């Protein structure tokens, strides 16, 4: 799909300097620009590239004044970085704007969907599923019985949504994610074996949530596992049964959260963090990567280590950790002298 400089300027409310009919069909970095591509210049460190770039169109700040001759057509805007981000979002909407039901697929007669619905081939939609407007479900996806999916949600190829799950508006669920699988519930019996505890709750995902590829969110034993609005989950995260994650919390890859833990809003959790079960973590908490959390955490704490310490305490202690061999050697020398 091609766009002219004039069309792009209209989307961005910018001013064309150069050829308004210049056409682009791809995006590029300014240092890697080629004919037919669109790029942007926001960081002054990259100013020299604008005189060399082969990109057909370049988005720049209003304040930019070229010092040498340029071949690229300019689109001047108030903030080049924000404008380019807006354009990326617009481009993504066009790219993902599929409509219709492909074959083969299974769409149960009792299921309903809104306008501008897309269902990719080899997908399955169960009984009594309710799907909103402008929902996109890509090929090889599974949506179980009694699931609700809100407007403008995208479910990418191969995602699995188990029965009774509730998904809000404007959510994105990436490939391979599994939402609503059984929680890890087993009880030992008199023979030393384990009997499965039925997991009869569900998962509730509120609006504007992003769930990364191959992330798993388990259904509750009773009640609901809840992901509040605005939460952003990276790839390969495990969220156990009855966990609750507060609004606008972000969690990086390979983090594991054990059952019934409650995490507050506006938290930032690094990669490979392990959080034990039945804990309460306050609002605004920051947990550094590879930390292990085994206690309740108050609001706005910053933690690192395993088991996690206060961030400042950890850094002070680490100075001594790395000097332990030297410290031990000095202690042994002092013991010899005292003897």
From TrEMBL:
Keyword vocabulary terms for this entry: Acyltransferase, Lipid A biosynthesis, Lipid biosynthesis, Lipid metabolism, Repeat, Transferase
SUPFAM superfamilies documented for this protein: Trimeric LpxA-like enzymes
GO cellular component: membrane
Catalytic activity line of the entry: a UDP-3-O-[(3R)-3-hydroxyacyl]-alpha-D-glucosamine + a (3R)-hydroxyacyl-[ACP] = a UDP-2-N,3-O-bis[(3R)-3-hydroxyacyl]-alpha-D-glucosamine + holo-[ACP] + H(+)
InterPro entries per the UniProt record, alphabetical: Hexapep, LpxD, Trimer_LpxA-like_sf, UDP_GlcNAc_AcTrfase_non-rep
Keyword Lipid biosynthesis included in the entry's annotation: yes
Record Pfam families: Hexapep, LpxD
Tagged with keyword Lipid metabolism: yes
List of catalytic residues: 241 (proton acceptor)
Stretches assigned to the UDP-3-O-[3-hydroxymyristoyl] glucosamine N-acyltransferase non-repeat region domain: 22-89
Organism superkingdom: Bacteria
Enzyme Commission number: 2.3.1.191
Top EC class of this enzyme: transferase
GO function terms (MF aspect): N-acyltransferase activity; UDP-3-O-[(3R)-3-hydroxyacyl]-glucosamine N-acyltransferase activity
Pathway listed: Bacterial outer membrane biogenesis; LPS lipid A biosynthesis
Biological process according to GO: lipid A biosynthetic process
Family: Belongs to the transferase hexapeptide repeat family. LpxD subfamily.
Function: Catalyzes the N-acylation of UDP-3-O-acylglucosamine using 3-hydroxyacyl-ACP as the acyl donor. Is involved in the biosynthesis of lipid A, a phosphorylated glycolipid that anchors the lipopolysaccharide to the outer membrane of the cell.
HAMAP family from the UniProt entry: LpxD
Subunit structure of this chain's protein: Homotrimer.
Name recorded for this polypeptide: UDP-3-O-acylglucosamine N-acyltransferase
